[in-house]
User: Fold ATP-binding cassette domain-containing protein from Vibrio parahaemolyticus.
Amino acid sequence: WPGSTNPTIHIPKLHITQGEHVFIKGPSGCGKSTLLALLTGINTLTSGSLSVLDTDLASLSASQRDRFRANHIGYIFQQFNLLPYLNVLENVLLPCQFSKIR
Assistant:
């Protein structure tokens, strides 16, 4: 967490190939959500490096990370934050409207 002297997560090396399925399991508070937030650029590193699809996320501005996420990453939050005036399919397809690639 910001201001903490202890690292939230310490992963010396993690390599996931495109299309690979990964299951992340652990007790509450072990860093699963933090890891996902880092991998998607929602949170930024305080030390170390992180590259996703050969892109150094730390070198991107917040808006560039948003664009990267829109173009390359599908993410469903723990709190769904669905738009009540859209149906389920429209909520699922909504992120595609922000991506030139999808």
